[in-house]
Structure formats: C-alpha cells, structure tokens
Design brief:
heterodimer, A: 271 residues, mainly alpha, MetI-like fold, B: 355 residues, alpha+beta, Rossmann fold, OB fold (Dihydrolipoamide Acetyltransferase, E2P), 6-stranded mixed sheet, 8 helices, 21 strands, 34% strand, binds adenosine-5'-triphosphate, binds magnesium ion
Chain lengths: 271, 355
C-alpha cells in the first residue's frame, strides 16, 4: 500500500467519524421520539415503536400555529428579498449612476455586520413603526440582504451585454430586459439563494424570540424553545418529537434538493 | 436616402474612436464598413444603432433625425457579432422576441414567422435552444430575428466572423440575396476585404477612426485613394515601391531606365498590382527571391534594387531563388503615389514611357 493510499483511507475514516458525530444528536432525536419515554436514555433494540410522543407534543403546544407563522415569515422574507435584491442588483450590475461605487461599498460593509449586533436598534425601529409582535417585524430587518444583492449582481454581470442590447434594439425597456433576460438567465442562482434563505430563516431564533411574544406570531423555533424549557418539566421523548416535527419540512426539502443545496452553499461561500 | 451620417465623432475620454465621419446609404443599398481591427467600425455602427451617443454630428434614418433617439425608436434591426441569441429561449421565441415585446398581434406574428422560416430554412429547428444549434444555424436565427422586424434598415457587425471559411462563403451569398430580395438597406461591418468586395454596393474604408475612402468596390481596386487602401485591398496587396531620381526623370533604380521622364523621382512611389506584372524576355531585370504556390496561381517574389515585388502568374511555375528574370507591365496599370502624403495622383505626370 502506498503512503498516499493510506492517507486517502485515513481521510475516509475521519470523514465518516465526523459525519456520525455530527449526526448523533439527530439520530438520538429519532430514537427518543419514536420510543416510549422510558427508553429515552436507554438503548434497547427490542424497545417498542410508538407515535404517542408526536401526538402528545402536537396537542400540548400550538405547533400548527407555529408552523403557519414560520411559513408566513420565511416565504415573506424570501419573496421580499427576491424583489428587493433583484432590483438593487440590476441597478448595480447594468446601470451607471453617480455614487454607485460608494453605495455598493456601503452594502458590502453590511455583509460584515452580524444581525445580532443590531438587535436593540432593530427593536427600537420596530417599536417606532408600531410593529412589535407582528410577522412583518420578523421579516423586515432581513429583506435588504447585502448577500443577496451581491450574489445577484455578480450573476447579472456575467450575462453578456450584447443580450441586453439586442433586447433593447428589439424595443424592450429596462424592466422587460430585467424580467425577460436577466432573471430567467439567473434561475439557478435564485433557486440556490432561495434554499439558503429559507433554511436560514426557518432556523432563525434570536430575533424572532426578541420581537415576538404571542402564539399568533411566534415561529416554530421560538415555540419549540418554550415547549422544551425546564419550567414545563423535561420530557426528552416529547421534546425530540417536537424537534423532529419542526425540522421535518427542512429535512425533506434538503433530501429533495440535495444537489442544488450543496451547490448553492459552495457557490455562496456560506452565510 | 435611407441613412445619412454627417460629421459624426465619438470620443471615449482621450481616445477618438470615430472622427468626423460622413457618408450615406441609399434605399436598398448594401454598404460595407471596412477597416483593420480597432479602426472604429463597431463604434460607428453602434452610433447608427443608438447604442452609443455621438460626441458631435448628426444621424438621419429615413429622412428623420435620430441622433438623440434610443435604438428602438430608430426603425432599425441589428445582428450582433456574437449573435446575441437568448440562451433560455427556443429558436421560435428568439425570432419573435421583438414582436412580442412590441405587442404585435398573434396572427401577424405567425404570418411573419412562417415567411422568415421559409426564407431561412429553419422549419425543423423551431423548438431547439440556441445552444443545440451549429454556428451556421445560430447565424440564421440571428438573421431571422433581424428580418422579422421588417425594418427598412438592418445593421450587421461582423456577422460571419465566427464561422469557418466554407460556411462563410455560403452565408455571404445568402445574406446578399436576402438583402436584394427584401430590398432593405444594410450597413455591414467587416474587416474582411473579400466580404467587402463581393457584397458591397458601396464601401466605406476606415483607418484610425477616419474614413479614408468612400466608393464603389471596383474603384477601391483600380483607383485606391492612397497606399493604405492599395495595400488593404487585394491578395496579395498592391506592390508599392519608392522611385529614384535619375537624370531626366524617375526610375526604379539609380541610373536605371526612366519610367516617368521629367518628374522628381524622390517625391513619388510607384504602385502596381501583382497580376499586372509579367515575366518576359525583356524588361526590368530582377532577381527571384521566393515563391508561393496556391494551386491556380503562383506568387513569385522578385527584387529590384532591394525592393520586393510580388508577381502573380497563372498555374504552377517553378523558379529557383536567385534566377535572373525580366519584368514587364502595361503602363496604364501603374499608379503613382505622393511619397509624402501617400495620396494617389489622379493623373500620371505627362510623358510616361512604355515599360
Ligand atoms: N466603450 C469604450 N470605451 C473606451 N474605448 C473604446 C470603447 N469602445 C471602443 N473603444 C476604442 O475605440 C476604438 C475603436 O473600437 P471599435 O471597437 O469600434 O473598433 P473595430 O473597428 O470594431 O475593431 P474590431 O475589428 O477589432 O472589432 C478602439 O481603439 C477601442 O479601444
Ligand atoms: Mg468590432
């Protein structure tokens, strides 16, 4: 065996180990959720399977409402991001105007600011807008995504100018050119960005926790945390069932779009 | 008059891409803008299209001033060098893109589409994406998109430069016959003198942003405005050799036989096309320095007084390097250029003598 092959095998083993280590919590959640509470900390292959934990979790907390809230919040955020970032990216990639570089560098600076740092300021803004404890309030701080503007701008810049010029000669105005040339040619990027954005906002916790305080607005992450907090007494089986329910849509989505997902993260450099 | 360009200039900062260009295109005429790379052909075409704004000058299309109008208000269609087909649309959608944007009624679109498909033979590829087509087919689609607009003027920027030589020949003829049949005015940009000579009703030759000569093709060959034109048109190009002053007139070499009596040889250059020189028993003595066999012709390089002359002979000729030969020509075919300005003299100085 040559040293390089040995190295390759070591790498494979290491990759598997890391993967299993990373997946353990999820695997544990599966174990605990599908077995009676007594088996939550006891491994026994003969343990009986059950769905009782799911039923109990579903009935003790308003999960259905939480799901609706999360879906509303993520679709609203992603849809508004698409509209806003597309328009901004178009302005940056395809049009010349005074101060363009300055504005763009300001947007890039936004990339460096962690959203958590702005928690207080954002809360004040939402108070001023009288939007505290509403679903739009969870979305608003994210819709002007610097990352989205940057990603789409890079992509629009790769579209040959001749295409836009050809469309112009054929009588297309700026908006038609955007919608009929640039957007369709960037379909793959929209899909990738959409997936990243949806998964990120589905899992978002801190800001929703701060800005919401009622069942009608709370997304599932916040709901789950209340459901699983020690005041309610810790039942690992039921908490696991609740957790699995809340990540299920994402997990299924990931399995369906696995290829695009991996691709998009590689392309996007991870946010 | 279909297009009239008057005193048009275009500057990019310090770079003058087009300087004071004036020319016109008659109805149904095919005008070729010809010139070496970087001379401003594309810029001039884009100025006519309205994709660039002029620094000064005016442009009229179909009798209307369009200098400040956007491209879609100029009543033109355009074919781009890269074809600029929309990769996400099918051939059909590409061709009718403009009609749909302009909200032409569906029936009218179908009628025009049927005609264009018929003209270009695209019938069985309507649902393909441009990426699935060969270069020649893509070219046809780009042509189709220009033709279906039914504009009186079509602008083309080196539309054949991405095709191989054989396809280029056939597409050249196709474009020409389309243009004649449809009776559209066309401005066609190329750097290929053969395309220019074969297609053009009129040629505008540019160099460094300026128009050097604006003429019918045959005059470019027979009466080039200056040595640049003379050497740009024709393969191999015209031979240009400086004359020498000798007692009594101008000759090819000091003390040689006088070609033009009574003129100062140092002030002129002689021009002669390779096919107008013959190798004969008598004439100017020259030495063979090389040859190129092309099948139908052989180009023989000769040297007189250190200056190279290419001679074109029919068929296959073998001549060893260093062979002494005699060259002769018909004096009508000689051109005389001013050595300083490089301009051709309209009439030969009197008293010329048979060579
Ligand atoms: N957008 C621009 N900005 C600055 N300079 C430009 C621009 N477009 C063209 N130029 C300059 O103008 C000159 C003419 O360019 P143009 O593209 O018209 O040449 P061309 O004759 O079409 O050449 P080619 O045969 O290579 O296509 C060149 O020197 C070029 O560098
Ligand atoms: Mg060009």
């Amino acid at each position: 065996m040559t040293p390089s092959r040995l190295w390759l095998q070591l790498e494979t083993v290491a990759a598997w180990l890391l993967g299993i280590l990373w997946a353990l919590p999820l695997l544990y959640a599966f174990w605990a959720a599908f077995h009676p509470a007594a088996y939550a900390v006891k491994f026994d292959l003969a343990a009986p399977l059950t769905l009782a934990n799911f039923i109990e979790a579903w009935t003790t907390a308003p999960f259905a409402r939480y799901f609706v809230n999360t879906i509303l919040y993520t679709t609203m955020t992603t849809a508004l991001q698409f509209v806003l970032c597309t328009l901004a990216a178009y302005a940056f990639a395809c049009h010349d105007w005074k101060g363009k570089d300055l504005v763009f560098s300001l947007i890039l600076i936004q990339l460096m600011v962690m959203p958590d740092q702005l928690l207080v300021v954002n809360y004040q803004t939402m108070t001023a807008l009288n939007l505290v404890d509403t679903i739009p309030a969870i979305s608003l701080p994210y819709i002007a995504s610097a990352f989205g503007v940057f990603l789409l701008r890079q992509n629009f810049k790769q579209v040959p100018i001749a295409l836009a010029e050809a469309a112009r000669v054929e009588g297309a105005g700026p908006l038609t050119i955007l919608l009929k040339v640039y957007v369709p040619l960037s379909k793959a990027v929209y899909l990738a960005y959409g997936l990243v954005s949806i998964s990120w906002h589905w899992n978002n916790f801190l800001w929703p926790l701060v800005i919401t305080n009622s069942v009608t607005t709370r997304p599932i992450t916040v709901g789950l945390s209340i459901f699983g907090s020690p005041e309610n007494g810790v039942n690992f089986a039921i908490v696991s069932a609740g957790t699995l329910m809340s990540v299920a849509p994402l997990l299924i989505g990931f399995l369906l779009f696995q290829h695009q997902f991996v691709h998009s993260f590689m392309r996007a450099g991870i946010k | 008059m279909q297009i009239e360009v008057r005193g048009v200039s275009k500057r990019y900062g310090k770079v003058r891409a087009v300087g004071n260009a004036s020319f016109s295109v008659e109805e149904g005429q095919l005008l070729v803008i010809l010139g070496p790379s970087g001379c401003g052909k594309t810029t001039l075409l884009r100025l006519i299209a309205g994709l660039e704004t002029v620094t000064s000058g005016t442009i009229h299309i179909a009798g209307r001033e369009v200098t400040d109008l956007p491209p879609d208000k100029r009543n033109i269609s355009m074919v781009f060098q890269s074809y600029a087909l929309f990769p996400h649309l099918s051939v059909r959608e590409n061709i009718i893109f403009g009609l749909k944007v302009r909200k032409v009624p569906g029936q009218e679109i179908e009628r025009r589409l049927a005609r264009v498909i018929d003209l270009l033979g695209l019938g069985d590829r309507l649902d393909s994406k441009p990426g699935e087509l060969s270069g020649g087919m893509r070219q046809r689609v780009a042509l189709g998109r220009a033709i279906i607009a039914e504009k009186p003027v079509t602008l083309m920027d080196e539309p054949l430069s991405n095709l191989d030589a054989k396809l280029r020949n056939s597409m050249r003829r196709e474009i020409c016959s389309l243009q004649r049949r449809l009776g559209i005015g066309m401005v066609y940009v190329t750097h290929d003198q053969i395309e220019a000579m074969t297609m053009a009703d009129r040629i505008v030759l540019m160099r460094d942003g300026s128009i050097i000569q604006d003429d019918v093709p045959e005059n470019f060959y027979e009466q080039p405005a200056n040595t640049f034109v003379a050497r740009f048109i024709g393969t191999p190009p015209m031979n240009i050799i400086p004359l020498c002053a000798t007692t009594g007139g101008a000759a090819l070499e000091p003390g040689g036989e006088i070609l033009f009596p009574g003129i100062d040889g140092n002030r002129f250059k002689l021009g002669i096309r390779p096919e107008n020189i013959r190798i004969a028993e008598q004439g100017r003595p020259a030495v063979v320095t090389g040859q190129e066999y092309l099948g139908s012709d052989t180009f023989i390089a000769c040297e007189i007084n250190g200056h190279e002359l290419i001679v074109r002979t029919r068929g296959r000729k073998t001549m060893l390097e260093g062979t002494r030969v005699h060259l002769t020509w018909d004096p009508h075919t000689l051109c005389l250029f001013d050595a300083q300005t490089e301009q051709r003299l309209e009439s030969l100085p009197p008293g010329r003598k048979e060579g």
